[in-house]
Amino acid sequence: MKPEANLTGLFVPLVTPFTDDLHLDPDALACLAGEALSAGARGLVALGTTAEAATLTTEEKRAVVRVCSAACRAHGAPLVVGVGTNDTAAAITALRELAESGDVAAALVPTPPYTRPGEAGTLAHFAALAEHGGLPLVVYDIPYRTGQRLSTSALNALGGLPQVVGVKYATGAIDAAAMELLGASTPDFAVLGGDDAVISPLLAAGACGGILASANVRTADYAELISLWQRDAAGPARRLGAELARLSAALFAEPNPTVIKGVLHAQGRIPSPAVRLPLLAASADSVRLAADLAAARTCQEAPA
Fold first, then answer.
1. What residues in the chain have per-residue pLDDT under 50?
2. For an engineered disulfide with 279, which of 34, 179, 257, 275 has Cβ 3.0 to 4.6 Å away?
3. What does 205-250 look like in DSSP terms, one character per residue?
């Protein structure tokens, strides 16, 4: 029997706030975590792409997990932690360390990037993680970052592994493969949308939630969007979804999370818009446009 991971609703992959001199700001991170959960997020994701995890030191990663764990404990919310590597042995080591903390509901693990081991190799990779890692796993299917798209049959095979509890589906398309996956999904294998701009139609087609970087901004509205589709309130959901799609497009106009950080700084929620190389700070024009959209709410409230 698979473990319960409670992967329904909105999960916010938090940015990692830095000071102007690029030091981690744990107090700002704690504030963001608390705000997201108070605004309706079901849970948090730490150390995702949005967190600039690739540029964090080992100790910084541990600090981020500690801060997010504390926030999730305080709110009774699940924490998902990103574990991204194309080294199976290193991933197992990272998973075991997280499992020892006892505070992590699941790990978000991409298909092995750059190596492109093929579907058989990917299945073997996740089988090893499932057997030896000690944590429930969410497969991160994001081909434009990993260089490899998984077929529906491969995702279904991964979903059959005892520790694999879901997929963050971010293929860049809502096509026949997406419909096939959603049609074949089971209650113990959650399909979570990961392409922010098209989350609304994916929810309409049956996704049970989303891991959405854009939800660092206007968290309550993204949580409401998921709730509207779950309540079959199609009209309000379509209107809100279209509005949030425009916001998501603006937030991703430059590499993630540069515009998001610019907006959060403009709102006074983080001390600096700073990102670490190889990322560069977003342009003032991109931040201004996204900040204007983040401040707007033109949709009518949905009926109760």
1. 299-304
2. 275
3. TT--EEE-GGGGSSHHHHHHHHHHHHTT-HHHHHHHHHHHHHHHHH
